[in-house]
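REQUEST
  id: r-88c1
  op: predict_structure
  target: Transcriptional regulator
  payload:
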Amino acid sequence: MKIRVLVCCDESIMSAAMRALLDQQPDFEVLGFTTGRESAAAVAELTPHVMIVVAPALGLDDSRELAELAALTKIVLIAKAESAHRSVEALCVGVRAVLAPDSSADDLIHVLRTVSAGASMVMPAAARRSLQGLPQQGRSYGTGRRAADLTPRESEVIVLLAQGKSNAEVAEKLSVSLATVRSHVHHVLRKMGVSTRAQAVAIAYETGLMAAIGRTAEFRGQEG
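RESPONSE
  id: r-88c1
  status: 200
  body:
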C-alpha cells in the first residue's frame, strides 16, 4: 500500500519540488496541496497517512491549528532554524517530526516512511542542531524531576529516539529485543509525564536533559 501524502505549502516552487521528489518514490502517492486555512478540510476529505506542513503556511503562532491537524493525521513540520523554539512547541502539541528546510531529500523521505510506519518521532541532525541551542524554558519542577529520573538505558533510548531511530533500529543499536525497547519507551513516557515520543524529546531539549545526557556520556568516556 502506498503512503498517502498531503502537502500544506504556500509557495508554488516549493510545492513543485515536493511533487517532483515524491513522485520519484514508488511507495508514495501525493494527494495534492493545500494552504494553512484549508488544511483541516483537506485532511478530512483526502485522509492522508502523513501531512507535510511547510512554514509559513502555518506560522509561528499557529499551535492550535497544528494541534487540530495532529489529531487528524501524522504531521511532519518543516520550519526554519530560527523558528526552532516553535518547532519544540509543535512537538508538544502532537506534531510527529520536525525538519529544517536545509535537510536533505533523503532525510525527508526517511522521515515520511518512518512516521507513516508508526514511529512518533523523527528529528534528523539538521533539526537537532537548531534545537540544541535553545534556552531552557523553565518547565515545572515536576516535569524536570521526572526527566531526571531516567535510568542510563532509558537515557540512551531517548537519545536514539531524537536521532529518528525506529524501535527496530533502537533494538539493533542496543542489542536488545523489540519488546524490551517498547518497555523502555513506555517507561520514558511515563516518567516524563507525556503521551508521545515527540513530546518526550521536546521536553528533553527544553529542560536541558539532552545536554546533561551528553555531558554524562562524555564524562564516562573520559573515565574509561
